Amino acid sequence: MRLVKTPNHSQKSSLPAIFAPLLAVGLGIMSLQAASAGRASATQTFEVPLFSGTHSRIEGVLSNKEYAFKLPEHVRLEPGSEITLAWHGSPLLLADVSTLSVQLNDRELTSIRLGAKKDTMDAQDRGKITVPLPADALQPGWNRLVVNCLLQTTQSPCRDVDNPASWVELDSASLLRVAYAPTPLFPELQRFPESLTEPALMNLAEFRHAPSTEASEPVVSLLVASDAGEAELRTLLIAAARLGQTVYTDPHAVQVKDIATFSEESTARNGILIGQRSSLSRTPLPPDLEKAIASLGQGEGLLAEVIAGAAGNQRRWIVVCGADSHGLEKAAQTLGSEVALRNVPSNPWIVTDSPALSPIAEKLAQLPAGAVDLDSLRGGGITLRGLFRNQTSRNIHFPPGFQTTPGGYVDIDLAHCGTLEKTSAIDVRLNDVLIGSVALTPQNASGTRQRLLIPAGIASRDPSTLSVSSYLDIGLVDCAHRNDERAWVSLRGDSVVDFHAAPAVINDLSRLGLLCLRDAFLRRTAIIVPAESSPERNELLKNIGMHLGRQLADVPVLWPQVATYAPGLPPDPERIAGRSGLILGSAFQWPLAFGKNLRLAIEGGDSPSGSIMLRGEPVPVADFDPSLSFVQLLPSPWSKGELFATIGGVEGYGGETTLQLLTESSLSERLSGTVAAADASGRVVTYDVRFIQEVSLADQIRSGFASGTTPSDIDSRRMDQSEAGFLTQTVNYWIAGMAFATMAVLYAVQRIMVRRRQNPKRGEQL
Amino acid sequence: MAAALIGNLVAASATSSTLLIHDTLSKPFSLVNEVAPFQTILTRFDTSVKTLADSKVEAADLEQADFILLAGISGFPKLKPEALRSLQNLSKPVMAIGAASPFASRKSSSKASTPFDQAKLAYRGQEWTIRLDPFYVESDSDIQVLAKVSSPKGAYPLAWRMDNRFGFASLPSEAPLSMVFSDVLLDFYGASVQASPALVFVVKDFNPSCNPSTLRRLADYFDHLKIPFVVTTQMREVPPGVEIIPRGDFLDALRYAQTHGARVFLEGGDGPERSEVFLKEGIRILGSTDAASDTTGMVIGDVLLQRTPGEPLVPYSTAVPLRRAAGGWLIPANVHSGMDGSANDETLRSIREITSFRGGLAVLVVPAWMRFQDMLAAVETGRSTNLPAIDPSTRFSVQKEPTP
Q1: Alpha-carbon distances of A740 from A44, A462, A745, A747, rounded to whole Å
Q2: d(CA B174, CA B167)
């Protein structure tokens, strides 16, 4: 933000230089007017990569790939945008037949021929095209680019659909160059969080480091006081969760800093300023806002948005404040509710009451009652057209916190073209778990109702999807011709989905990810953190919040809870009653959250022992890799039926490893049992304290993290242990069976003997 | 006698009477009514207008009128000799128009029209290239020129004054001649305009097929700048084949806009039943957009004229609000925005032209179906003129009787 000094305010020697620009902008009015007066909006450009990673592969004779990208709402899209596609394809593609076509928002952009000429030196087909876009081709918000390919390697009719030689790869030079003109910013609280994060969509030079390998500069700052209490930390968590809902915002694009840095931060990026009135007293804010904060009554909160900076370099800041902790939490809850923000009455907004949830909103977190038909879903019935593989899905109301139970079903009302080869079939999936497949035969071509049972144990998510994929084969055809009318399958709108579901069951660490998702609105989520302030704690809290928000992108309300603990100050039971979640901190800190009554499988020894107790067995801290992170699942001592997982490192929060355990499925899906440890090398050791194990926890961890042990070693060892366990179990069953049989025989013999003794004459008569 | 009232912005005086005399209604070989524009333009003023054909004018009519407009549509009006004598002897303001314009000069003889295809009209710092047909060249050099046109053949007065007589050398059938004529009438009536030129922003036809977040954002924008604006709305006619938003979302967005400074007008007539639907939802309807069906209150929309018998009404451009026969005001929707840069240039030009007239009110209409960025660009274009944006509901307040 450029500093704009005004004569009136530059006199205030007691305030830093930033005070002047903030006063000058007030609520942004002056800057907006200046912007309007200037109107020097030269067209600029930014680049949007079509995909993450280095390449995107499109394979199959007839194939297509869809790339969705979002464009920001706070700039004006100007004529002059263009799209560049750089590709290399299989050297076996036929030059005269293979093609690539590009569609943008359902408008055909261009088509090109693929395939290397026979006499070229480079056998591999390479190319690059840049297509100027019509002025109105792009739109703010989501855009959809579809690349359709016909990748033939032989002149014969289209049969070898899975030929591995039929491929083309787009490389990272494929991108969209968007021409835009900045427009003046103005407060629009109701558009939070997109309003703050949308610069992240633009990959602007100001947020890039010179070497592309380094992490980008943050786009959003969350500022909290160094002595932040539970209310501030909860606000931080809620704000981070809402920012995470944008999905495209990388956690690195959001940073947490102290409110003392507001002067610098407000000039550099968008952000959220969090604090109670007392902690914001020295923060330079526009006079109107300062006055509003000063006049807050007991228990009142405040939400405001200010635009700082001069035209062309404006930043957007949301102020979340309260006269006290109660007021701050009211403001935080308002920020966490999209529903509440949609009715912002004024800026600044004095929040006197916590926002309420309407019955309609409440229903979003509940299971639907009874069966639903496809017609009632957005998109309605499903028709898949075209040769070979196609897929589509419908969002279905199955909110987080639940899992399927036996008895659920999908009744599909099926019809298809009837001329399909016998390899043709459809697969139906719920949240990517296969429910069932249906072969498409002449017998079920004209309207058949077929029931697929929904397996138990499928976890819900946001959004839950019912997806249908098809393989439609109509025999020998020319792929270059349209075959949409000849190959189709339809699931009519009166197809019915009936969930039988119950709250998700979490009985081991394999469902660690569901621990905080027991309610779609995160009302049953509590994160318990050490009261002792540290940047690592705040950063972890932000990352957890963003991760939760990312998983609940369509949910209108996010109200997770935060509680703190310290020596002699256990967490406030009111904040954690009826909630499940995480207890952050080091192994030495966790016991402070529980008191003396509970012994953990892993915990720091009594200070100053310098040992970690692994099921009572002390192991010196020095023996552990500093990157190690432990996680253990245990029932909540505060509420029956709730669960908490302690997670953290030996002496700190566990750094990146803790974060990976919580956010990366590649690591978390390897968890099992009730106790686990992981390190930065991706090694994971799991243990179940509910069963007697052959090896102690300490030995398990010692061997798992011994030098030279690789993740695959641990996996194979776990496999061996599982096999050994299975073998042992089998032997045990045999022994038990044999013993039972022996006992039964002995019993029978004994009964016979007794009866003979009782009837000696009968025996004689016989 | 300065007896005209312009809007509610001009120094008031007693209501005057104006006599409009014309020869024919239409030009020879034409069915287009050329008198209707005069009657429409005169609604700007607080004066009672009496329209008479030339042959029916008596000397007494001339005596009774405070102001006289003498319009020659196809030729000089054929007044009775005593009426003509009386007219020549009057000292009250007389405006001679079209073929009658020679009456406002010392060489008051009948002339033939000399049309120009590409004439440049200059008035109050603005310039237009227009076609003038008819045009009656005035060569008297002793007149006070109020507006002039230039062509390759030379420069000529379009509007002028000579003592109590005013001349207008063409017919104000359409803009910009109609606007110039309307402005010249201020001098004719001796009225003073106290209101400075202003701007009204209108978001047109927000209906359930529109994006509610666009309206919300625009409301935020206007609210931030403390600019009042108008939203016209309806939920009866939605373009076919489009997805509509839920009723609740639609009404929520309207309520949000209303809370943030929007004045809501009903698209079409504001029949009590239609207004009632919105009122029940907490949305107050202040007027409508349809002058034909709304007989009272305030209308923001096109000024429509029946120019040809049996044909549909056609829009007629005016730079200023007009009084409605049944009371209330008609705020002309006189600037229509577009979607690209060139359209915004055109918008800017239109606003500047309209507001160059005394009491000019540019009503910038932004379709609600446009993308937010295009709407914002149009509004920013309007704001770049630095004209004050006004709230029509307070500037042109209309007190409606409460429904019993």
Answers
A1: 83, 50, 9, 10
A2: 18
pTM over 0.80: yes
Q: Token digits for A569?
A: 């100050």
Q: Which of B220, B339, B344 to mutate to test the interface with A (most CBs of A within 10 A)?
A: B220
Task: Decide if A93 touches B, using CB distance below 8 A.
Answer: no
Q: Give the residue on B whose Cα is nearest the Cα of A29.
A: B225
Q: Which of B220, B340, B384 is opposite residue A187, by nearest beta carbon?
A: B220
Question: Per the structure block, which two tokens stand in for B62?
Answer: 């001339």
Cis ω before A406 (30° cut-off from 0): no
Q: Which residue of B has its CA nearest to A31?
A: B225
CB-CB under 8 Å, A183 with B380? yes
Phi and psi, residue A543, nearest 5°: -65, -40
Q: Are strands B298-301 and B285-288 parallel, antiparallel or unpaired?
A: parallel
Residue A31 is inside which H or E element, if any? helix A29-38
Phi-psi region of B149 (alpha: psi -120 to 50; beta: other; left: phi over 0): beta
Give the Cβ contact number of residue A101 at 10 Å.
Answer: 15
Residue of A nearest to B386 (CA): A37
A664–B contact, CB cutoff 8 A: no
Using one digit for the tens of pLDDT, what is the confidence trace for A130-171? Answer: 999 998 899 999 999 999 888 888 777 666 566 788 888 999
Chain B residues contacting A via beta carbons under 8 Å:
213, 216-217, 220-221, 223-225, 252, 256, 259, 339-340, 371-374, 376-377, 380, 383-384
Return the beta strands (E) in B133-215 as ranges: 144-151, 154-162, 165-168, 198-206
Chain B residues with CB under 8 Å of A75 CB are 373
CB within 8 Å of B152: residues ≥ 6 apart: B118
What is the crossing angle of helices A655-663 and A535-551, to 10°? 10
Biggest distance spanned by C-alpha atoms of chain B: 71
How many cross-chain Cβ pairs, A to B, lie less than 8 Å apart? 60
Full DSSP string of B307-322:
-STTSPPEEE--SS-E
A145 forms beta bridges with A67, A104
Chain B residue with the nearest C-alpha to that of A305: B224
- Cβ <8 Å between A191 and B376: no
Torsions phi, psi for A246 (to 5 deg): -70, -15
- The C-alpha of A111 sits at a distance from chain B's nearest C-alpha, in angstroms, of 28
Q: Which of A292, A341, A732, A308 is nearest to A558 (CA)?
A: A341
User: How far apart (Å, rounded) are the C-alpha atoms in residues A464 and B116?
Assistant: 71
Q: Please indicate whether, in this complex, the C-beta atoms of A190 and B373 are within 8 angstroms of each other.
A: no
Q: How many CB atoms lie within 10 A of CB A518?
A: 22
CA A700 centroid distance within chain: 31
Tokens, residue A545 = 């919040």
Report ipTM for this prediction.
0.81
Q: Do A76 and B377 count as a contact with CB atoms less than 8 A apart?
A: yes
Q: What is the CA radius of gyration of chain A?
A: 31
Q: Looking at residue B53, what DSSP letter applies?
A: E
Q: How far apart are CA B283 and CA B231, in angstroms?
A: 11
Provide the pLDDT for residue B82.
92
What are the tens digits of pLDDT across the range A628-676?
999 999 999 999 999 999 999 988 899 999 999 999 888 888 888 899 9
pLDDT band at A124 (very low <50, low <70, confident <90, very high): low
Under an 8 A CB cutoff, do B372 and A187 touch? no
| B256–A140 CB contact, under 8 Å | no
- The sign of the dihedral angle between the CA atoms of A560, A566, A572, A576 is positive
Give the Cα separation of A275 and A290 in Å (integer).
13
Task: Compute the residue count for chain B.
Answer: 404
Q: How many Å apart are CA B95 and CA B92, to the nearest integer?
A: 10
The SS3 of residue A530 is strand
Query: Largest alpha-carbon pair distance within chain A?
Result: 130
